[in-house]
Specification:
Layout: H1 6-18, E1 23-27, E2 30-34, H2 36-49, H3 66-78, H4 95-101, H5 109-121, E3 127-128, E4 131-132, H6 133-140, H7 158-170, H8 178-184, E5 193-195, E6 198-200
Antiparallel strand pairs: 1-2, 3-4, 5-6
Helix pairs in contact: 1-3, 3-5, 5-6, 5-7
Length: about 200
């Protein structure tokens, strides 16, 4: 059954980004994150590479990347950082300013999901260039329950499906065609199928 609580989504994202050294316990509906040092080191690194436009690059000194910035925003949201704080403001720009002024276009299902997760993580509306990306994801869903765009040859890409489910759940919405989408989470139509961020052979 796909009933994902928001706090577990952000915990998952934080763990994926910071690393497996982050452990957590649920106590009275509160996430208690242990081993804070890796998180603090990661946040310090993010601060050190943030660009003047408010965004984050894949490598220090490079141009800001929408992809990298959304990953960082997920981590910052999971760590309960205020991205509007002066701590995350460079040259008067916050990561939100970068998102709002970014010229990059998006098309792939995973891009819509990633942006939706990032903006929900920091408490912003999941809107990019005037488009509600969560609404877009629900329209992308195929008749078999899968979240991918066959017109873009994304058929069989389980990562697009899983990230879409997380993004929709992060917006506190019911997963459309839940039973079918549950089945697609475990079934692959190809010998090689995508899971999360990498390929499993």
């Amino acid at each position: 059954m796909i009933q994902i609580k928001q706090k577990w989504i952000w915990l998952l994202i934080l763990t994926l980004i910071v690393g497996s050294s982050v452990t957590a316990l649920a106590e009275d509906s509160t996430i208690v994150v242990q081993t804070k040092k890796p998180i603090e080191q990661t946040l310090a690194y993010f601060q050190s590479i943030q660009n003047a436009d408010g965004g984050f690059p894949f490598e220090e000194g490079k141009e800001s990347s929408l992809t990298m910035t959304t990953w960082v925003l997920m981590a910052l949201g999971a760590a309960e950082e205020n991205v509007k704080d002066s701590k995350w403001t460079v040259n008067g720009n916050t990561p939100i300013d970068y998102i709002n002024t970014c010229s990059e276009t998006i098309e792939e299902t995973t891009e819509y999901a990633r942006i939706g997760l990032a903006l929900n993580a920091i408490g912003e509306k999941p809107i990019y260039k005037g488009v509600n990306v969560i609404d877009k994801l629900t329209r992308i869903q195929e008749s078999n329950g899968a979240f991918y765009q066959s017109v873009l040859n994304e058929t069989g890409m389980i990562n697009a499906h899983m990230w879409s489910i997380l993004a929709i759940a992060s917006d506190e919405r019911v997963i459309p065609n839940r039973k079918k989408s549950e089945g697609m989470a475990f079934v692959s139509t190809k010998p090689r199928w995508w899971f999360w961020m990498g390929r499993r052979r």
